[in-house]
Amino acid sequence: MTAATEWRDYLPRIERLAARFGLEFHPVDFEAVPATFMMEIAVYGLPVRMPHWSFGVRYISQLIQHRMGHSRIFEVVFPGNPGRAYLAAGNGLAENLLVLAHVLGHADFSRNNMLFRRSQEQVGMQIVERAASHAQQIARAIEEHGAERVEAVLDAALALEQHIDVDQPLVRPPYPEYAISPAALADDDFRRRYAALDPDPGDQHSLLRKRAPVPPFPEKDLLWFIAHYAPELEGWERDVFLAVREESTYFYPVFATQIMNEGWASYWHARLLRESDFLPQDLYVDAIKCHSDVVRPVASGEQVALSVNPYHLGFSMWEKVVEKDGLEAARRMMCEEDDFSFVRNRLTPELAEELGLFRYEAESHGGIRVVERELPKLHDALLAPKYNFGAPRVAALHVHVDGTLEMQHDHETDGRGLDLERARRVLEYVHRVWRRPVKLHTVGPTGQPIEVTQS
């Protein structure tokens, strides 16, 4: 047996140790794959995914980073039942032992955290198979309608992939056709059922019902909205939008719990390695060295919170939580929270100081001074890129009689304007599938109102 496959002998013992410490996880299928395939998985987000040129651009960027020594991927894991974990074939035995324990921490997190549970209840537990089905769906569409038409639809859908409403269910009913009248709001089952019947032609009151506006409220779920209300979208095009929306719903918990999730997996790989008395001493030492590389702080130049390594921050926070409140309390937090509550509630001034997360700058005489020590500002710096799935807050506001789609950027909540060049490009993609004029209200760099249009 070679070092490349020897890790499989240790896997059952690490799984039993994890279960003894209370980790609860679905079975995980582990597979060692070449580095090029590992990069493809990391770029596409899934082992098999719908084809699109943007993934190729990301792959080239990842490949350049890898060849410059700035990026190395040890593993990629996908929650589910069973979960799937891909290990880089070039990993050494010590690296793979750390990865096995790390993945089991992820599997415990994804089975028990509320965001992951909700996502899996809606999307299902076999996301890899679902994504492969979507890829086949796209391939059939290309055969039937041509690559150019399919690419235009994917351009628009993937440009909006972050624009989902995570508070809405994956399967949503359509908007009501008519505005709700006061009578329909009567707190009486019979009256509600009666109001829902087809109107009597002789009932003049019914004829006065008003059609509900579309949308009846600012709609943040742009993928869902376009899929259901674009005037001329064909069935296969709607299916593409809904497939992208389904995959985005799957990815949201990964995005919203990165610090917690990577920290939890790092805490458990360190603890399980310490408790693995079946490991030879030299192998244990090598694995712990790998741990030090994974959770080292990352900062360059002026120290800024945004340059922090999420593995390092999450690992340090979980260590403090377990030390102060115990493992049972830590598990409750793991189940119930996301990065927003975890960072705001658990990143204390003392820990921020210890980790060097406050902003510093060098003085002319060689000393170092603290530029910013306000904890709320540090929290905001860490969390701001995570709000609204990392996308600007844009909602569909109104569809006019001529089919013009009017959208509004919530710049007050975002606290900034849009990158206008990118906004024009995205709006052009949207216009291709909406096939009516599209306009977007936002603000410029100095706060002046700006209307971006495509017609």
3D architecture notes:
The structure is a single chain. The longest helix has 22 residues, at 235-256. The strands form three sheets. The protein has a four-stranded mixed β-sheet. A three-stranded mixed β-sheet has the order 1-3-2. A two-stranded antiparallel sheet has the order 4-5. The protein contains 20 helices and nine strands. It has 455 residues and is α/β, with parallel strands linked by helices. The termini are far apart. Mean pLDDT is 84; it is low at 53-71, 299-306 and 365-370. Helices cover 55% and strands 11% of the residues. It is globular, with a radius of gyration of 26 Å. Among the domains are: 127-170 and 214-254 and 392-454, no CATH class; 295-388, no CATH class.
List keywords for this structure.
single chain, 455 residues, alpha/beta, four-stranded mixed β-sheet, three-stranded mixed β-sheet, 55% helix
Entry summary:
This protein is of the alpha/beta class.
Please describe the topology of this protein.
Elements: H1 3-20, E1 28-33, H2 35-44, H3 53-67, E2 75-78, E3 83-88, H4 93-112, H5 114-123, H6 127-145, H7 147-159, H8 189-196, H9 204-207, H10 222-229, H11 235-256, H12 258-275, H13 281-294, H14 310-325, H15 327-336, H16 339-346, H17 349-355, E4 359-362, E5 368-372, H18 375-383, E6 394-399, E7 405-409, H19 411-414, H20 420-434, E8 438-443, E9 449-454
Parallel strand pairs: 1-3, 7-8
Antiparallel strand pairs: 2-3, 4-5, 6-7, 8-9
Helix pairs in contact: 1-4, 2-3, 4-5, 4-12, 4-13, 5-11, 6-7, 6-11, 7-11, 7-20, 10-11, 12-13, 12-14, 14-15, 16-18
